[in-house]
Design goal:
The protein is of the alpha+beta class and 1269 residues long. 29% of the residues lie in helices and 23% in strands. It is built from 33 helices and 61 strands. The relative contact order is 0.08.
């Protein structure tokens, strides 16, 4: 047992985990960074992501190749608004993309056309926040990674309806046509192109260069070649021909149009395939003029030959020309105009870079599957690929090799956010290229620039559509930090190019042995998406090709080197390896203690000798995801309940008073840190100022750090206060440091959003008793003590945001105001001049939150009315009340309001703005100049007087010549925003300092420039609002929700229940020392569910509370029962928590012992306040006139068929009639009933329900006349 430093927890792990957890958000952040290649220079940019998308499309030329538009580079400007501003204003956090393009002319007739290099605006691109999310229209969204079938070749089998096994090989490219090779019931091999057109494989082989039967048979080594001579042929009499004997000659044909002689090759079949050679055939063969004939191999298996031979029998072609013409005819349903056109169609389909690409992944998979050595940059199919696929298919048909397992993770890969964005850019840019070509062709003689050719909206539309409507762009689950992290690490098999729920079978959803250490076998949704949505395991990473890797230790001759860095291996690299468990006991020298090691090799679990073991797991929790790894004693829980537990932890609402679990697993600090919800110290320093909103820390810097830095020594951190999340929970951060505190790098400075002392804290530690209590905990119901409510243990804050838009309507402009017609002064007492409720006001159902009036439509007034209006003023009836009122669920306290407006300015105001803008520009110039002076001074300190190595800008032009000495004047003349910051001198250390300094300068310059742009925008345009909106008013209402009867609580082991009763402290069962328990759970909920982890947790938690200790018990490496007993003995509490309790009501001791201890319980987002609903009158359906259903529609309860039977069974005729008429769809009757109730009269007689009239109209519509007798 070890004690961890930061929270003084006792760790029960027996295995020292030397492998650090990767950053849990790397799957999102690294993918996005590699897409934009942030922080890399033009020289360093690899051909991937956005750069690759541009490189593939450019250069673009016009139809006559006169003008060429070339891509040079792209830059990203700073965003206009900060992330917080975008969330509050309902905007998208985006960056302007500018592309440097070069337009030049290749035509001698346009000598006057000068080459133009321009930065062209390509639109605003949503940009990832440091937390791995996107802010789109004010809401945080996540792009979920997709698990899909990898490009490459797949060998499979299916069964014909008559029971025959059919084998197939499918080549799936990254882009382009699919090609599939399939056998049929007659053992003939066909090629299908795009699953439509079918042709014999031999026809395809002829078309790609294997023209004759001889060529085809020789590549598969299926025939013996015999030279034609009398003596030679006599020796082979009695053997079978493997290929036709053809007599070929050339005929001259006169072309009627041109009169020219055109040679045409003719073929005549002398002997058919499979003919047994007899003596009479010898002369025929010699006369035909063939030099060689092909015979069946004498020792060859007939099955090897059968597939190709049967296919040759079905092949209608004999030469390359015939084959390409046949393929053209099949694909185009027309005759080819000439041979070259016919050949072109095959080239375009599979051998053209423009139309077909396997991608790096496809080429890698084909090379590894077929054991080929084709260069990785060869992205198109080769003849070698096709021949090798057919050879493999022949072997498969003859049962020499096995079919592929498509659920193996070597055949499935991840499309991360970067790749999905890349695909969208490809779509957007290809649409843009089309319009560019059209504009180039139209503007033949005009002078035009790259800006004239580009329409940025084309690209923006595609990108915005992806973020707004794609199935994989999802509203972020922000209930608590764990929910955020898990959502970002989610892997979905659904979405475009993936599976659909309906089509996905059992195999795809099932756990596969390659999921070990890659995808969690536990965490997946219940319901239709089970197995289709998974979560990455804790140590899993995604490699460059998109395959999931997991770390292992190398085992060499039965020993591991603990100091060696673990190796990450993909599912393919794991094939044939023997892998030991992480908990296998080791000696000090790294050898295995035991002679027999529990191991696994692919799908087998075996006991292996140490010498046979090649790899070893790095940690026992390697198999599980983050959520599953947060369940203590997971090893004692049934997997179904663990699944529920890991899913419910994501639904836990952050509590007002956070409490980290006494029994944790060791992952809590890592989840809290990687969720980016806390503020951590960036280095050694001292806290200089603290209040509720701000923390200031002065960091100690080395001389070198001081030299390269442009930041102040004191760093200010703003704390998030009462911010609404996507799920309406509340983020409220409080400082946990004091002025004068010394801080170290990584130290947590604040707490609040479901964290305590830097650890995840999503619930509360409660004293629990497992016992029945008066039947109130029947069927998983939960009994709580009043103390839990009184001490705000399960109190949470929820924030509802209400938005009102002010628009210009046809009848005039809407207006925000407190002066609302026909509303009393008391109802508007809390409204300000803009009609917005004051902060701090207590609002309840029906109160006005935002006052708004809308002009009414009316006919033109008569002259008399005009006169009266001129005298007495406009009447209130011209406008109608369109105010936003609080709904029953919105009662609470107003904690924030904001009003955004577009500025509409006249000429005088614009001229006043001009002065302000000029002043702003001057200030910016001064700041930028001062910053540049500081940079020049810092650089002079580093390299002053040293000789330059040749400093270039990003276009490759020399800015400071080679060997010239650096002076301050020279340095001040450089534009550092466009300079290449690498290799300025011959000294590596100096170069590194120069590079860091310039990077820090550019970061600071971008901050100043971004702030300047924001200020300019605020003056010229005002607030950026959605189209058609003049003003946007927002009001935030906070609700403090205590735990109530009907709320859902759960533990971490899938032990969920509804609060059935909140009991006074004195009535709860109490311990011998008089301590009442906080919560009572039903003991019957444990044995059948098989989640004993909760009992272990309860016992250890009690010991921890008594001793004032906290524990880490990692999954699959947790505390044993002996270790738990040692802790309970030390704490002086009963072993196994079994103790006598006393009845709170009578004071008598219960007859039997009950398990008592401390359990960690969560309050889930299923709150009774959101679900409770009642209706008296409300909206009705338009056609049936019946009340609507559901809380959102303020609907009623449905009285269905079975409920009618129940009332009929009781003979309650009048109640039933009332239910079906007055309370439902008797339109006249219900109005009269309401009037009767108001006036205190008897209820009217029910009339005819509207649904009966609907039935009559339906019958009339069918041509039936219905009359009443």
């Amino acid at each position: 047992m070890a004690t961890t430093n930061n929270t003084q927890r006792i760790n029960f792990a027996s295995i020292k985990n030397t492998v650090n957890f990767p950053d849990f958000l790397d799957v999102q952040l690294k993918s996005f960074q590699s897409f934009f290649q942030i922080g890399t220079t033009l020289d360093e940019r690899r051909n991937e992501g956005l750069y690759k998308a541009f490189e593939e499309l450019f250069p673009i030329t016009d139809s006559r190749n006169n003008f060429v538009l070339e891509f040079i580079d792209y830059t990203i400007d700073p965003p206009r608004y900060s992330i917080e501003e975008c969330i509050s204003r309902g905007l998208t956090f985006k960056v302007p993309l500018k592309v440097k393009l070069k337009l030049y002319c290749t035509d001698a007739d346009h000598e006057d056309f000068e080459t133009i290099v321009q930065d062209v605006y390509f639109g605003n691109i949503p940009f990832m926040t440091p937390k791995g999310s996107f802010v789109v229209n004010g809401a945080e969204r996540i792009v979920v990674s997709q698990l899909h079938r990898s490009p490459g070749v797949f060998f499979g089998q299916s069964f014909h309806s008559n029971g025959t096994k059919l084998y197939s090989a499918r080549v799936i490219p990254f882009k382009g046509s699919w090609i599939e090779f399939t056998t049929d019931i007659n053992n003939v091999l066909y090629a299908y192109i795009d699953r439509k057109k079918k042709l014999p494989v031999t026809t395809l082989l002829r078309a790609i260069g294997y023209e004759s039967d001889r060529d085809i048979l020789s590549i598969f080594n299926l025939a013996d070649e015999v030279k034609v001579s009398k003596s030679g042929l006599k020796k082979v009499v009695g053997r079978k021909l493997a290929a036709r004997v053809l007599k070929s000659w050339v005929d001259d044909f006169v072309d009627e149009d041109t009169g020219e002689l055109v040679p045409i090759e003719r073929n005549e079949v002398i002997l058919e395939r499979d003919t047994i050679i007899e003596k009479s055939h010898i002369n025929e063969i010699i006369d035909s003029g063939v030099e060689n004939i092909l015979l069946h191999k004498e020792d060859g298996s007939t099955s090897d030959h059968a597939l190709i031979y049967n296919t040759l029998q079905k092949d209608p072609t004999n030469s390359e020309v015939e084959a390409v013409r046949h393929i053209y005819r099949q694909l185009r349903s027309a005759e080819a105009p000439d041979d070259d056109t016919a050949r072109g169609i095959i080239d375009k389909l599979f051998f053209s870079d423009q139309r077909y690409s396997l991608g790096h992944v496809g080429r890698f998979r084909i090379n590894s599957r077929l054991k080929l050595d084709i260069p990785i940059d060869k992205m198109v199919l080769t003849n070698e690929d096709i021949v090798s696929i057919i050879s493999n298919l022949i072997s498969l048909t003859n049962s020499k090799v096995d079919v592929d397992d498509i659920d193996h993770l070597s055949n499935r890969r991840i499309r991360t956010v970067g790749e999905q964005l890349s695909n969208q850019f490809n779509v957007g840019l290809s649409r843009m290229a089309r319009t560019i070509r059209e504009r180039m062709n139209v503007r033949d003689n005009e002078v035009f620039t790259p800006i004239d050719l580009i329409n940025a909206k084309t690209l923006s539309a595609v990108i915005n559509s992806f973020f707004g409507t794609s199935q994989l762009s999802q509203f972020m689950d922000q209930t608590n930090p764990l929910a955020e992290v898990t959502h970002k690490r989610r892997i979905s098999a659904l979405g475009p190019g993936g599976l659909t729920r309906e089509r996905a079978g059992f195999e795809v959803r099932d756990v596969h042995y390659t999921h070990y250490g890659r995808l969690c076998p536990i965490e997946t949704p219940e319901g239709p998406n089970i197995g289709l949505i998974s979560s990455l395991a804790v140590f899993a990473k995604i490699n460059k090709l998109g395959f999931i890797e997991t770390p292992y230790r190398n085992v060499v001759e039965g020993k591991i080197d603990a100091t060696e860095t673990p190796v990450y291996k993909s599912a393919e690299q794991e094939i044939e390896q023997v892998i030991a468990q992480a908990n296998a006991p080791l000696n000090e020298d790294g050898s295995f203690e035991n002679d027999r090691i529990k191991s696994r090799s692919e799908a087998d679990y075996l006991i292996a000798e140490p010498s046979k073991v090649t790899l070893m797991d790095v940690a026992p929790n390697q198999i599980a995801s983050i959520a599953a790894s947060l369940i203590p004693f997971l090893e004692h829980d049934d997997a179904n309940r663990a699944l529920m537990g890991s899913n419910m932890m994501r639904q836990a609402v952050p509590l007002l008073r956070t409490d980290a679990p006494i029994v944790g697993t060791g992952l809590e600090p890592h989840v809290a840190r990687d969720s980016r919800t806390m503020i951590n110290a960036e280095g050694e320093g001292k806290v200089t100022y603290v209040d509720a909103n701000t923390i200031k820390v002065t960091y100690t810097k080395t001389e070198e750090q001081e030299l390269v830095s442009f930041d102040e020594a004191e760093k200010t951190y703003s704390l998030t206060k009462f911010q609404k999340t996507n799920q309406r929970t509340c983020i409220n951060i409080q400082p946990i440091v004091r002025v004068g505190d010394k801080v170290t790098k990584g130290q947590v400075l604040c707490d609040g959003y479901a964290t305590e002392n830097g650890e995840l804290a999503i619930g509360r530690n409660l004293k629990v008793a497992f016992m029945p209590w008066k039947g109130y905990n029947f069927e998983d119901a939960i009994i709580l003590s009043e103390r839990v409510v009184r001490e705000d243990m399960f109190t949470s804050l929820h924030i509802a945001e209400h938005v009102v838009n002010v628009r210009e309507t046809k009848r005039g402009v809407e207006e925000l105001t407190a002066d609302i017609p026909n509303i009393s002064e008391t109802a508007t007492k809390d409204l300000d001049e803009y009609g917005m409720v004051r902060i701090g006001a207590n609002v309840k159902h029906g109160d006005i939150l935002i006052g708004k009036i809308t002009p009414k439509g009316e006919s033109d007034p008569t002259p008399e009315e005009k006169l009266l209006r001129a005298i007495f003023g406009e009447k209130a009836g011209d406008v109608k009340d369109a105010s936003l009122k609080a709904k029953p669920a919105n009662a609470g306290v107003v904690i924030g309001k904001s009003l955004f407006a577009k500025t509409i300015k006249d000429r005088r105001m614009k001229s006043a703005d001009k002065e302000q803008l000029e002043q702003l520009d001057v200030t910016f110039e001064k700041e930028a100049h001062a910053l540049k002076n500081i940079l020049a001074g810092k650089l002079y300190q580093i390299i002053g007087g040293k000789a330059a190595k040749g400093v270039k800008n990003i276009l490759g032009e020399e800015v400071i010549p080679k060997s010239e000495k650096f002076t301050k004047k020279i340095l001040l003349g450089v534009d550092f925003t466009l300079v290449d910051p690498y290799n300025w001198t011959g000294n590596i250390d100096n170069n590194l300092l120069v590079n860091t300094t310039i990077e820090n300068y550019i970061r600071k310059y971008n901050d100043i420039y971004g702030e300047h742009r924001r200020k300019r925008f605020a003056i010229t345009i005002g607030d950026e609002l959605p189209n058609g909106v003049l003003q946007l008013a927002k009001v935030q209402i906070a609700q403090k929700r205590k735990v109530k009867v009907g709320d859902k609580l759960a533990g971490r082991h899938g032990n969920k229940g509804i609060v059935s009763r909140i009991v006074k402290d004195e009535d709860m069962p109490f311990l011998e020392d008089g301590t009442p328990v906080d919560i009572i759970l039903n003991p019957l909920g444990v044995p059948s569910r098989m989640n004993l982890g909760q009992i272990y947790e309860t016992i250890l938690g009690w010991a921890g509370q008594e001793l004032g200790k906290k524990y880490f018990t990692p999954v699959f490496d947790g505390a044993s029962i002996d270790q738990i007993n040692a802790e309970t003995d030390e704490a002086g509490v009963p072993r196994l928590g079994q103790t006598y309790l006393y009845d709170g009501g009578t004071g008598e001791r219960f007859a039997q012992t009950a398990t008592v201890g401390i359990i960690y319980m969560l309050k889930l987002g299923h709150l009774i306040d959101d679900k409770m609903h009642a209706r008296s009158i409300g909206p009705y359906s338009l056609i049936t006139q019946q009340p609507l259903g559901g809380k959102a529609q303020f609907g009623g309860q449905r009285l269905g068929e079975m409920e009618v039977w129940a009332l009929e069974g009781y003979g309650a005729a009048n109640i039933l009639q009332e239910m079906l008429t007055l309370k439902s769809d008797d339109v006249v009757g219900r109005a009269k009933a309401f009037e009767s109730i108001v006036k205190g009269k008897d209820l009217p007689t029910p009339g005819i329900p509207e649904s009966f009239n609907v039935l009559l109209h339906e019958l009339n519509g069918l041509g039936l006349k219905v009359s009443f007798e």
